[in-house]
Amino acid sequence: MAVIKVQRPKLGIGEKVYFGALIKGFFLTMGHAIKTLRGKSVGADTLHSSGLGVTMQFPEQRWDKEMPEHYRGAPTLVTDEQGRDRCVSCQLCEFICPPKAIKIEPGEIPADDRWNKVEKRPKEFEIDMIRCIYCGMCEEVCPEQAIFLRKDYLITGLKRADMVHNKKKLYEIGGVRVGLVNKWNELK
């Protein structure tokens, strides 16, 4: 088999110095700046901009109204209408989580409890929001619809410990979700 050597094209003097690329970039930037000052910047109307650019002014203006239907936000835990845990500690969400952001410690329901047929509920449930990639796999795999992604993008904390949401915080954020929960079904 014949080997063909391909010669790399030689750079001209302008390409070696790259001064032309700098000048071209400068004129492009100045063109955008002049359009912005005239109030003719592209996209300023759709982003409700201040008129001096297409950047949304974040604390005063938010994406809440323009949020797409398919947006996946922060994962949370929900309770049923009576305030009971929907989670059965099956640990499917923990096993399927690609970045391993979910940690569950199952706990047993006491034998004298009316719902001891359920067998388990989460003793500890933590989601590390720094590790979470908001993929939605935990929501898809949950058999009891106990975990879901809400449309939230304002997850902040002053230290790493603030970004690890425990069971209490997850239930506080998630709230109540209405619908049939198989584990609390009398006929099951």
From TrEMBL:
<feature type="binding site">
    <location>
        <position position="90"/>
    </location>
    <ligand>
        <name>[4Fe-4S] cluster 1</name>
    </ligand>
</feature>
<feature type="binding site">
    <location>
        <position position="87"/>
    </location>
    <ligand>
        <name>[4Fe-4S] cluster 1</name>
    </ligand>
</feature>
<dbReference type="GO" id="GO:0009060">
    <property type="term" value="P:aerobic respiration"/>
</dbReference>
<feature type="binding site">
    <location>
        <position position="93"/>
    </location>
    <ligand>
        <name>[4Fe-4S] cluster 1</name>
    </ligand>
</feature>
<keyword id="KW-0411">Iron-sulfur</keyword>
<keyword id="KW-0874">Quinone</keyword>
<keyword id="KW-0677">Repeat</keyword>
<dbReference type="GO" id="GO:0005886">
    <property type="term" value="C:plasma membrane"/>
</dbReference>
<dbReference type="Pfam" id="PF12838">
    <property type="entry name" value="Fer4_7"/>
</dbReference>
<keyword id="KW-0472">Membrane</keyword>
<feature type="domain" description="4Fe-4S ferredoxin-type">
    <location>
        <begin position="123"/>
        <end position="152"/>
    </location>
</feature>
<dbReference type="InterPro" id="IPR017896">
    <property type="entry name" value="4Fe4S_Fe-S-bd"/>
</dbReference>
<comment type="function">
    <text>NDH-1 shuttles electrons from NADH, via FMN and iron-sulfur (Fe-S) centers, to quinones in the respiratory chain. The immediate electron acceptor for the enzyme in this species is believed to be ubiquinone. Couples the redox reaction to proton translocation (for every two electrons transferred, four hydrogen ions are translocated across the cytoplasmic membrane), and thus conserves the redox energy in a proton gradient.</text>
</comment>
<feature type="binding site">
    <location>
        <position position="138"/>
    </location>
    <ligand>
        <name>[4Fe-4S] cluster 2</name>
    </ligand>
</feature>
<dbReference type="InterPro" id="IPR017900">
    <property type="entry name" value="4Fe4S_Fe_S_CS"/>
</dbReference>
<keyword id="KW-0004">4Fe-4S</keyword>
<feature type="binding site">
    <location>
        <position position="132"/>
    </location>
    <ligand>
        <name>[4Fe-4S] cluster 2</name>
    </ligand>
</feature>
<feature type="domain" description="4Fe-4S ferredoxin-type">
    <location>
        <begin position="75"/>
        <end position="107"/>
    </location>
</feature>
<protein>
    <recommendedName>
        <fullName>NADH-quinone oxidoreductase subunit I</fullName>
        <ecNumber>7.1.1.-</ecNumber>
    </recommendedName>
</protein>
<dbReference type="GO" id="GO:0005506">
    <property type="term" value="F:iron ion binding"/>
</dbReference>
<dbReference type="GO" id="GO:0050136">
    <property type="term" value="F:NADH dehydrogenase (quinone) (non-electrogenic) activity"/>
</dbReference>
<keyword id="KW-1003">Cell membrane</keyword>
<dbReference type="InterPro" id="IPR010226">
    <property type="entry name" value="NADH_quinone_OxRdtase_chainI"/>
</dbReference>
<comment type="similarity">
    <text>Belongs to the complex I 23 kDa subunit family.</text>
</comment>
<keyword id="KW-1278">Translocase</keyword>
<feature type="binding site">
    <location>
        <position position="97"/>
    </location>
    <ligand>
        <name>[4Fe-4S] cluster 2</name>
    </ligand>
</feature>
<comment type="subunit">
    <text>NDH-1 is composed of 14 different subunits. Subunits NuoA, H, J, K, L, M, N constitute the membrane sector of the complex.</text>
</comment>
<keyword id="KW-0520">NAD</keyword>
<keyword id="KW-0408">Iron</keyword>
<keyword id="KW-0479">Metal-binding</keyword>
<feature type="binding site">
    <location>
        <position position="142"/>
    </location>
    <ligand>
        <name>[4Fe-4S] cluster 1</name>
    </ligand>
</feature>
<feature type="binding site">
    <location>
        <position position="135"/>
    </location>
    <ligand>
        <name>[4Fe-4S] cluster 2</name>
    </ligand>
</feature>
<dbReference type="GO" id="GO:0051539">
    <property type="term" value="F:4 iron, 4 sulfur cluster binding"/>
</dbReference>
<keyword id="KW-0830">Ubiquinone</keyword>
<dbReference type="GO" id="GO:0048038">
    <property type="term" value="F:quinone binding"/>
</dbReference>
